[in-house]
Amino acid sequence: MERSAIDRIRRCKISVIVPIYKAEKTLSKCISSILEQSLPDFELLLIDDGSPDASSSICEDWADRDERIRVFHQQNAGVSAARNKGLVEATGEYVCFVDSDDWVKTDYLKDLYEALLSDDSKSGLIVHGFVECLPDGRVISEIKLQDKILKEKQFADAFIQDDICRLGYICSKLYRKDLIDKHNIAFNTEVACCEDLLFMLEYLLYCDYIVYGKSTHYIYVRYCTSLSVRVNSFESEYVCFLQYISLAEQIKHKYGLSSEDMEAVYRSLMVCFRRTLKTDYQPGNTVLRKERLMHLRKLVDTRLEMIRFYYHPVYKIDLFGRYLLLHRMFYLYDLLMTTVFLLGIRSVFMGPKSSSMISSPIP
Questions:
Q1: What does pTM read for this prediction?
Q2: pLDDT, tens digit, for every residue of 279-328?
Q3: Is 25 exposed, middle or buried (0-12, 13-18, 19+ CB in 10 A)?
Q4: What is the DSSP letter of 210?
Q5: Which CATH class is domain 6-228?
Q6: Of the four listed, 72, 172, 246, 290, which is most buried by Cβ atoms within 10 Å?
Q7: Is 171 within 8 Å of 218 (Cβ atoms)?
C-alpha cells in the first residue's frame, strides 16, 4: 500500500529523498541516521524501486514508527526514475538526496539548511563535502571544502577556479524545490552514469548563488558493485556524453566563458567521452564488430575537433588509439582495444587512479 495519504502531507523545510533497490542490509542504518537529525522539520521519502528483497517491508515498518516518513512503491525503473518520483512527491521547500547504502551524521540537514542565504527571494545551491569509507568503516578519503559564497556574477569562478564538475556527486547538496519545478529539472532516465552531475549542472543554469561549506556529515560507503564502475551500453553512455556537451555549451554561453575558461569542464567531459568510447569492449558487453565500428564512427565523426583539442590520454596505448581515431582508422582502433581488453588491462578503461574526487580543498 502506498503511504501518501493527503492528511499526512505537510509543508516542511526539507524533503529527503532516498531511492531504494536491494538495500535490505543497509537500509535501516540509513533511515535511522536520517530520523536522528538535529533539524527535525523534514519529511523522508522512501522510494522503493521494485526491490525483490525485504526492502519494501522495511520501509513500511519504519513508516509505521514515524509520521515524517512516506513510502512509494514502483516497478523497477532505475535510480534516476526513483529520484524523479521523489521530486514529484516532495513537499519541502528544499530537497536533498541520500543513497540507501549510505548514512548521515546528526547535523547533516541542519548545516545544509543554515548555509542558505537570508534573502529568500534568491535560489541557491548548497554544496558540502563527505567522508568516503569501506563497508567495515575504514575511511578512504575525506572531501572537505572551504567556506565560500559565489553570487551569480561570480559563477564563472565555479568553473574556472573551483572545477565544480568534480563536485557533481548527489550527496551533501541542498536544492530549492520551486526552482526545480519551475524549470522542469529532472534526472535523465536514459543515463546510467553521471546523472547526478548533469542534474547539478542544469540546476546551476538557473540558481542565484552557490555556497560551499566545510561540513562532512555524509558518509558515503564504497562497495565493489558501485554504479560508477559498472559497464553500461553505448547508447546510455552516448546520451550522457551528448547531454554533458549541451549543458557545457549553455554554461559557456550564459556566463561568457572562453574555451580556455572551460578547460576544467572539458577535461571532465572527456571522462564521459572515454567511457563512451570504450564501453563496447568491456567484459559482459557482447557487441558485434560491425556495431562497434558504427559506434566509433558515430562518436568520432560528430565531435572530431573536440577530441583533437581536449582528449589527451595518459597511457601510451591510448595515445596511439587517439592517433588512430583522429585519422579515422576505426578498424585498427577496434583491433587495438579488443586486444587490450582481452589482455585484461583494466586501467585503460578506468584511467589513472585517484585517491579521491578532489585532490585538494577549494581555496
A1: 0.88
A2: 999 877 889 999 999 999 999 988 888 889 889 888 888 999 999 999 99
A3: middle
A4: E
A5: alpha beta
A6: 172
A7: yes
